[in-house]
């Protein structure tokens, strides 16, 4: 970190492409010296903290039309990568289609930051708070490879992002969401929770998300659970999912779910909290929200 701070400062060159092809060609020509940007809120924080070096060139994507649109199409919702978080927070269709994603967006930073930060930037960082919510919503991402736009499952894209195998020129152009279909008569549950070092406007320590359906007798189906937080890798928690799928929510089961989360959740320590604290927090958050879901079901 100190070495980065000791580097001489310069003003990066700013390129403003008008098309995806032009942006892709610029990145291919500039290589590691060029960085795609839009809101730049996370990148600015990293540069100021000295955790990453200031790039020599910025490729500003905001001049490319269509990348900030939010549209409904046949029950599916498409969100352009450059849609800012404030718009996502206010969008009624997002609240109906993927309430956990909208709650995650609501919890990110302060209003002034959300006015600049984009949903695509939060995803592209690989550590954004919205990622656990997107994982339990089975989101698909739209990407441009220099010739074609294609869709990828969120979970597959994230695995490549963390393994370092994503092509550096690839451009994230948006995401697709659709409300899940569950058993007839079952109630949909979709939850996102965040814990930080203070109540609001703070980076996350732990984030968790739950998606699925609950029947009148308290039985769960189509269960999806994910966790992340801070600069840790967002991940599905398959052991907890397997325990809950087709099961009735009872105290004994929730004890086993907590243990499964604690054993599988891969995270990291930082100057403020330990790995054990984060694992316990993730387990407690998930168990508490599942119990609330059961209590809510009893009141129906």
Tally the helices.
Answer: 13
Mean pLDDT: 90
Helix content: 25-40%
N-to-C order of helices and strands: HEHEHEEEHHHHHHEEHEEEEEHHH
CATH homologous superfamily assignment of the largest domain: CO dehydrogenase flavoprotein, C-terminal domain
Radius of gyration: 20 Å
Largest sheet: 5 strands, antiparallel
Structural class: alpha+beta
Q: Work out the number of β strands.
A: 12
> How much of the polypeptide forms β-strand, as a percent range?
15-25%
Number of domains in the coordinates? 3
Quote the CATH topology of the largest domain: Enolase-like, domain 1
How are strands sequenced across the largest beta sheet?
Answer: 4-5-8-6-7
**Spans where pLDDT lies below 50 across 5 or more residues:** 1-5
Mass-distribution shape: globular
CATH architecture of the largest domain: 2-Layer Sandwich
Give a structural overview:
The protein has three domains: 2-59, 2-Layer Sandwich (Uridine Diphospho-n-acetylenolpyruvylglucosamine Reductase, domain 2), CATH 3.30.43; 70-177, Uridine Diphospho-n-acetylenolpyruvylglucosamine Reductase, domain 3 (2-Layer Sandwich); 187-298, 2-Layer Sandwich (Enolase-like, domain 1). Helices cover 39% and strands 23% of the residues. It has 13 helices and twelve strands. A five-stranded antiparallel sheet has the order 4-5-8-6-7. The protein has a four-stranded antiparallel sheet with strand order 9-10-11-12, sandwiched between helices. A three-stranded parallel sheet has the order 1-3-2, with helices on one face. A hairpin with a 5-residue loop joins strand 10 (204-214) and strand 11 (220-228). The N and C termini lie far apart (54 Å). The model is unreliable at 1-5 (pLDDT under 50).
């Amino acid at each position: 970190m100190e070495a980065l701070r000791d580097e001489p400062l310069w003003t990066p060159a700013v390129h403003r492409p008008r098309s995806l092809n032009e942006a892709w060609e610029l990145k291919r020509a500039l290589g590691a010296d060029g960085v795609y940007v839009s809101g730049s809120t996370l990148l600015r924080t990293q540069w100021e903290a000295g955790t990453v070096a200031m790039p020599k060139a910025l490729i500003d994507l905001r001049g490319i039309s269509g990348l900030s649109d939010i549209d409904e199409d046949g029950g599916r919702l498409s969100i352009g990568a450059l849609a800012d978080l404030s718009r996502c927070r206010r969008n009624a269709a997002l609240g109906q289609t993927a309430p956990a994603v909208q709650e995650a967006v609501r919890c990110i930073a302060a209003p002034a930051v959300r006015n600049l930060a984009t949903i695509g930037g939060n995803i592209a960082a690989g550590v954004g708070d919205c990622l656990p919510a997107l994982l339990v919503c089975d989101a698909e991402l739209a990407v441009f490879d220099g010739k074609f736009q294609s869709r990828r499952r969120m979970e597959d894209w994230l695995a490549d992002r963390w393994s370092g195998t994503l092509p550096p020129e690839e451009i994230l152009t948006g995401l697709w969401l659709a409300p899940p279909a569950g058993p007839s008569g079952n109630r949909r549950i979709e939850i996102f929770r965040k814990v930080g070092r203070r109540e609001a406007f703070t980076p996350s320590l732990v984030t968790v998300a739950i998606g699925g359906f609950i029947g009148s007798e308290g039985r769960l189906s189509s269960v999806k659970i994910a966790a992340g937080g801070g600069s840790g890798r967002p991940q599905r928690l398959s052991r907890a999912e397997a325990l809950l799928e087709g099961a009735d929510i009872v105290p004994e089961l929730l004890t086993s779910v907590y243990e499964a989360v604690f054993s599988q959740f891969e995270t990291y320590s930082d100057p403020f909290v330990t790995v054990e604290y984060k694992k316990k927090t993730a387990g407690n958050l998930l168990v508490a929200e599942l119990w609330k879901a059961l209590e809510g079901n009893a009141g129906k």
